[in-house]
Prior knowledge:
The structure is a single chain. Helices cover 40% and strands 18% of the residues. By secondary structure, it is α/β, with parallel strands linked by helices. The strands form three sheets. Strands 11-10-9-12-13-14 form a six-stranded mixed beta sheet, covered by helices on one side. A four-stranded antiparallel beta sheet has the order 2-3-1-4. Helix 16 (398-407) crosses helix 18 and helix 17 (415-426) packs antiparallel against helix 18. The two termini are 50 Å apart.
Amino acid sequence: MSKIPTPSYSITIRVSIDNRIGMFAKLATAISTAGGDLGAIDIVKAEKGRIIRDVTVNARDEEHEKQIVNEIRKVDGVDVLRVFDRTFTSHLGGKIEITNRHPLRDRDDLSRLYTPGVARICNDIANYKDHAYAYTIKGNSVAIVTDGSAVLGLGDIGPEAALPVMEGKAMIFKEFAGINAFPIVLSTKNPDEIIRTVQNISTGFGGINLEDISAPRCFEIERRLRESLDIPVIHDDQHGTATVVLAAFINVARLIKKDTRDFNILMVGAGAAGTAIAKTLLAYGVKNIILCDRAGAIYRGRIEDMDSHKEELSRITNPKVLKGKISDVISGADLFIGISAPNVLTPDDIKKMSKDPVVFALANPEPEIAPEDALPLVRVLATGRSDYPNQINNMLAFPGLFRGLLDIKAKGVNEEVKFAAARAIAYYLKDDELSEDHILPSIFDKRIISQVAHAVAEEAKRTGLARI
């Protein structure tokens, strides 16, 4: 669980307080004693001898929320009337909706935007299919497709439980890139059925964002869809993550003045993201990557817990054929990249790394090592979390990546486009802006989206992906 309070566990407590001097101080002391982070305080109404307030508090987890409320209940003169979980209330009714771009005010509007005027547009598109990009939502829309089999750090929780994540992704697309994204959650895990469904719905979209589909099925699904469709298909867990990790890696190399090709890298996690990161870094020129899974280092000739995609990884990684657990193969590593599970990396492991070790502990919500344990030992630490510096988050990549591809009506996507996006993210920061706790731009700096989109569009045009 989190060691510090976070907005993910934010509650608003409605309390009725005796209206006398010093009462609110007692309430604040109770919250502090319980370890809560006191936020907004609002007066709901004043009654004779009593004041009703809404007090917002950040907690560490659900159990901590209960501890805070129980501590408040101990204060004489304070009654807890109701507790609102702000994360749950912010999801009520869903987080997205469809709105019209043009008003329907009268019959004239209706005749142009619907029947009979819409028939003219239908006939035009029937004659010139690419005009759908201009006269329908297709040119600015993305389908976010999942089967709910690999959601966040929660695993196979099913399509219904995956829907809040897909809605959140759609919000980010709209807010940061102006793209209309539609969450599509499928009640099947059969690759053939998923592929066939996406093929059948693809007509209405300019791009497909595969999301939270477990490995190794995700590799086949993405490959076959890319082969069969004439629009970009991107499994964001693979390529969005790999793009931002590459950007962070480029900037770490700039910061410590070391050639990216000379890094010794140890990775933990051989799923979708880990596989894509390894392949991306190798394609970028890194020569020495060791990839570990639950059974330890992946190497040529390993028998235990292998499949076709790990066999492929064994042929392109671990050139010295090192064997063993993380602690056995981490000696001399310059960079640790974790896309796995909490608490797989120890302080003793970090001490075996090279001088100025760099750790990307990206498991969410709990990283491979507690940041508080890692920070005294590393030159640079990055996580997937927003409450520590150097957040490595797909959000830096996918809005601009899709924006650029949609802008030139791309027929697909390639490795060069990913490199262009990563370099745009990395070099958004000038040399004098880089520091150990600032290796990536803020995900809330919307200017980064346009920079990534421009770089992607130019590279896509250069490599023959553009329709225009």
